[in-house]
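Entry 14. Structure prediction run on the chain below.
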Amino acid sequence: METIFWVIVLSLPILPNLWCIWHASRHSFPGPNEQAHWVRTGTFVPIIGGILYLAIGMRRARPLPKPGDDLLAPDKGNTK
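Output returned:
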C-alpha cells in the first residue's frame, strides 16, 4: 500500500509536463516557432517547463483549424 502511495506522489510532478507536450502539439501559437519551443520546454525542462506552460503558454494557444475549414472562404452571412 505504501508503494502505491509513493508511486502516485512521485509521478505527480510529471503531469504538467505531459499536459504541456500534449496541449502544445495540438494547438497553434502566434509566433512561428512557439509551438516547437513549448514542446521542447515541456520535454527537456522537467517540472518547471510544465508549470511555465500552464502559467504562460496556455493563454497564448489557439485551437488548430479543422481539416474541412477553409479560412479563405467568404463569410456566408454577408452575401447579397
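The mean pLDDT is 87.
Filed with the rest of this week's runs.
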